[in-house]
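Support request, please re-run this one:
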Amino acid sequence: MEPHAIVAAWDGDTLSIDTPSQGLALPKADRGAIRHLPGEDPYPQPVPGRRLRLQGHDLGPQVLGIMAARLVGSPVKLVLLREQMYGRWAIARHPPDARIGSDRDGRLTAIDHHVKTASSTFDDFFEPAADASHTLYASPAIATSHEVVRIDTGTPMFMRAPGEATGSIALESAIDEMAQACGMDPLAFRLKNYAEVEPISGKPFSSKALRECYAQGAERFGWSRRPLAARQMRDEAGFLVGWGMGTATFPALMLEAQARAVMRSDGSGLMETGAHDMGQGASTALAQIAADGLGLELEEVEFRTGTSDLPDAGIAGGSAHTATAGTAIHNAGAGVIAKLAGLATNDDRSPLFGAGNAGVIARGGRLFRRDDESRSESYADILDRAGLTEIEARGKSAADPAAQSTYAMHAHGAVFAEIK
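Re-run finished. Output below.
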């Protein structure tokens, strides 16, 4: 359980911060902490020449650490005690209410999902806990609402996101109770109300394999052996055994990010992006995407990440980081390959001459002709003949408004559980 912590160090007007973070570019963009420091006149704008560099991974007590380091003229490490961390998060989540209606055959007629939560007196934050009801089940009438009560506390913010989690519990519990009231198996009830399009908007899903997910989960779990009535199963010791299941969903988000790729004359590659690994495996997954995009083996790519002076990789949140930073990395790699292909296919000394960019593929540090893979050339040879020691390209990713206006984009899952 990581506490909030920071190491701050000044070198002249350059401030270096080592602190956990879900988005290295976010605190860098807000330089309020170095605009107005003790013993200085207030500055309406950032001090000219002052630079901020962050490295690390939940933002810690930044401002106090920065101020202390400036005052004492030495690097300062500040770590909050466990007791000091409860106040901000204590009121972050509240139980939502979900009401549903169905006909006698078990087909939904209405979903009403209301969330009452608390926030501070000075901010408008709330968790979108009722949003799960927008997408999961086909109903002709859906209403969701969020009511916020202001109290004297810090803004709660996300409590081990996503906020949809508590709302999902309310909706899925209501679905289970309705299935029982209709005398139906909980999985059969969900399948009867399966949403072929997003109910709230009518948009088709960009992809959805929830039926297959239900089928695989039920088969592996042995769901067909579950009795319809409750309280029918016991183990050898006499404990009641319950089998339950639920549906999971989360929006498939894409945020903005950048990356820089370099191919060197020795055949090795470099990929740079300011990503953040909090234990979710970003360092591994993004390095693999980098190698794939450059057409190299993993050990042939130097992957630099984790500091704010690298291209902005976006935030590690919303289950979007791999898709966001990974797309920027892929596009940067594709840009380098396109430049190499351009050098080779326009040079009559190359075996790839005349193939065009679309006529080559990258694999194992070489470019191959699509129409004749016996004709290929290494990256190193292409750069050497062009008199270059390296070649670089930048890539970026961003949400696609056209796709968002056309499709509903969500991930789905099914959870089967046994309890005693």
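The first strand starts at residue 5 and ends at 11. The chain is about 25% helix and 25% strand.
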